[in-house]
Design goal:
Strands 2-1-3-4 form a four-stranded mixed beta sheet, with helices on one face. The chain has one domain: Glutaredoxin (3-Layer(aba) Sandwich). α1 links the parallel β1 and β2. It is built from three helices and four strands. It is of the alpha+beta class.
């Protein structure tokens, strides 16, 4: 069985990042938050081509990207995320 996870690259000063973060929390979607402004995360940001924030990746088995959203979440993006994690 494939494990589905998410990671959010963001910044504490980014309003859109906070909105995506809140959406994930409100819907009990497990994810890892990565502060893109933290110098310790520069290599993971470079490896994942993170240039704009927010940057959300939904992964299968922690390595295969099955959904990637850059910028604010649209209604369609939210529906896709809920379908992946909740079967809705």
């Amino acid at each position: 069985m494939k494990k589905i996870t998410a990671r959010l690259f963001g910044s504490p000063t980014c309003e859109d990042c906070r909105m995506v973060d809140n959406f994930l929390k409100e819907n009990n979607i497990p994810y890892k938050y990565i502060d893109a402004n933290d110098d310790g995360n520069s290599s993971v940001c470079d490896t994942n081509d993170v240039f704009l924030l927010p940057h959300l990746q939904v992964l299968s088995d922690n390595r295969f990207i099955i959904l990637e959203v850059i910028g604010d979440l649209s209604t369609a993006d939210k529906k896709k995320i809920l379908a992946i994690f909740k079967g809705k």
